[in-house]
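Hi everyone, sorry if this is the wrong subforum. Our group has a chain we'd like a structural model of before ordering constructs, and none of us has done structure prediction before. Sequence below.
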Amino acid sequence: MGRFLDYQRPTRQDWKFTYKGRDLLEAAKTKLAQLTQAFEEAQVNVRTAVAKAINMRHDEEVEKYSKQVEQLGPQMEECQVFVFEFGRNPEREFNLAISDVTYFNLHLQTMDHEK
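Answer:
Right subforum, don't worry. Here is the predicted structure as tokens:
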């Protein structure tokens, strides 16, 4: 019986959420600020780890923080494009997947409005 119901209902991965660009702009700006802060902190951590590695051979920290910088840079650039696009098209409807809703923390905004 459970398997039958699985075929009758779409999974959460199939859900689509429609938002106008103006409604996404603030969430994208907030996400960009978070990514920018994390990127800048990772850069500081790399410099600190490099200084330690020179003196004490802490190469693992250099690798760890360098990897963070490598991952955060493209994420930050992608989010800059979201901010640009949502600002450029405030009336356009964007269809988001559930992963997009959680990426921009839109589900938390809905919960905040209900309080």
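For your construct planning: The longest strand covers residues 17-20. Residues 1-6 have pLDDT under 50 and may be disordered.
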